[in-house]
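Researcher: I'm preparing a figure for a lab meeting and need a structural model of a single chain. I don't have an experimental structure, so a prediction will have to do for now. The sequence is pasted below. Please return the structure as C-alpha cells so I can convert it later.
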Amino acid sequence: MSVVVLISSPADARALVSWGWTVAVKRKCKLLVIEPLISRAEPQVLEFLLDDEVPEEEKALAAAAETIAELRGTVEAEETPWVKLKKIRSNDLKAEVLKEISDINGQLLMAAKQRKSSSGSPKSELARSLFDAVSCQVVLARVGENGPPIHKKILVPVSGGKHAIEALKLADEISTENCIVTVLYVEPPVVQDAEEVGQNVLKASIEKANVSEGLKLTAKVVLENRAETGIANEAKEHDLVILGASEKGALRRQLFGTVPDRLLSEREGAAIAVVRAARPIGDRIRRKVEHWLDLTVPQLARQDRIELIDNLQGGSRWNFDFMALIGLSTAIAGLGLLQNSTAVVIGAMLVAPLMTPLLGAGLALVQANQPLLLAASRSILFGFFFALFIGVCLVTVIPIPEITSEISARGSPSLLDMLIGFLSGIAAAYCVARPNLSAALPGVAIAAALVPPIASTGIALGMGEASVAQGAALLFGTNVVAIILGASLSFYAGGIRSRRSNGEGSRWAGRTILSLVILSVVLAVPLASVLISKLTHPMKVSPNLSTQLVQQIETEIKKFSGARVSKIDYLTGGRRALVRVKVESAEQLPQAALAAVERIVNPEPDATRTAVRLETTLVLDSQQN
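Model: Understood. Here is the structure written out cell by cell.
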C-alpha cells in the first residue's frame, strides 16, 4: 500500500506532501511524490530517494524534499516511511501516472486542482481525469499560494454519505495536536426539530468515521435553506475545508456545485479538498474488464457511435412505417405458415422491423438511456400485439383443417433457440454498428426469427391449439430477451457505455439487465427440459417419411396427456404400405388417437390408403419423495 502525491508547484508540494507524509506515517505505508510534465519526446523519469539531494532547479521536487526533511524529525526512525520522488515527462501523463499508481499499489492519490485562471491547463485536466479514472481513494485539493502545511481549524461538512465519512477520516489523519476539527451539517429550517435531526446525522457520521479519541472534535448544525451558503459562511472561519465528493460523480459539480464559485476563485481564504472514497471491488473489476475490452475489441469511432445512436433512435419509434412493415411481414409469414412454405416464411423475416427496437433496447441499457428504452419497449409491445392480431385474422379468413409442420415446429422451442437468439443479438449489434458489415444483416434477421413465432401464436390461438400457441409465444419471448442481452453485450464491448457510472441512471439500467438475466434463467428451465427430452429420447424416423408428416403426427400425439412418439416406421413389405407409430405413454391411448393419425397419413379419402398401426408402450415412473 502507498500514498501517491501529484505536485505541480512548490506551493502544492508544501501542502500536499505534508498531508501525504502524515497519512503515510499513520497508515504505515509508502509515499511516492510525482511531478508530471507534458513532453512530446520519449517518456523520461527522474527519480530521487529519501536521502538523495534534489537539484535546486527542480523547484517543485526540491520543495517536496525540503518539506519531508522538516517532517522527518517529528517521527522516530523506525516510523519513517519509504519515500521516492519522481519527475515524469511524457505526452500521455494519465497513462504514466496510472501505471505508477498500479505498480506501487496506490491506496490514496492526492492531487492539486488548479485555480480558475488555469482550469484549462494540462495539469488541471490531468487532475480531473485521474479523479474519475483511478479506483483508489482520491483527494483533490485547492491550496493557497503559500498555504500552511499544518492547519489549525478544519471544517468537514457531512451529509451521511460514504465520501463525507472518508473526508472526516482524512481530517483526523492530517490534524495536529492543536487542530480543531468542526463537523458541520446544514439542515433546512423547515421542521420544528431541524437541529435535533442534524445532530443525529452528525452523531452517526462521527461513529462511522471511528475517529481517534484524542481528536479535538466539534459538531455543529447550521440551519440554512441552501447547503452551499451554510458551508461558505462557516468556511470563512477555517483555514481548510474537506468535502466529500458528490455522489453524482461529475468533477465540476463536486467542486463548483458544492461550494460557491466566489469562495473557490479567491486567491486568499480557506484551502479546499474534495475526497472521493475508494471504488468498490465490483467497480474495479468492471473497469478492468472495460480496459481489456478496449484493447481486444475494435472500438467504435465517435462518428460511428453518433450515426448508430441516431439510426436506432429513429428505427425504434412506433410510427406508420413501423406499423406497415410489421403488418406486411406478419401477413407474409402467416400465409407462408398456412401453406407450409419455408421460403415464404424466410422472406417475411427479411421484411420484419422488430430487430431494430430490440437493438435499440440493448443500446439503451448500456447507455442508461431511459427515453430510448421506453420508445423501443413500446414498439416491441405494440408490434407483438399487432402481429398477433393479424395472425388470428388470417386463420379466421383462411381456415385450415390442421396445424402445418411450419407452425408446429415453432411450438416446441428448446435451449438451443435461446442460444441462437443471444448470438444473433451479438451479431446484429456488431453489424449495425459497422456500416461495412451491413451485408450480413439479412442473414442475422433470418437466424433470429421474430415475426414467424408471433404469426404462429396467432394462428394457433385462432385454431384453438393452446399448446402450440404457448410454445410459439415462449419462442418469441425467449428471442426478445436473448437478443436484447446479446446486443447489450456487443455494444458494451464495442465501447458504448454509460458515463453515469455512479448515478441513478446506471442503477436502473443495471437492475433491468439483472432482471433480464434472471428472466432468461427462468425461461431456460422449460427450454432445457425440451432439449434434454430430445437428446435422451430421440425419435427414430424412417427415411421414407417426410418431415412434415412426422411433425404432424408428433404434434397430434402430444395432445394426449403423457404421450410421446418414440419411433415412426414406413413399411412396404406387405400387400400395402404401413406407417407404424410407436408411442410411450402412461396409459393406453384411445381409438381417437389412431383415427387422428390415420387422417394425417391419408388426407385424401379417395386415394390409395396407407395402413396405420399405433403401438403403445406403457411407461410408469416411480415418484420419489
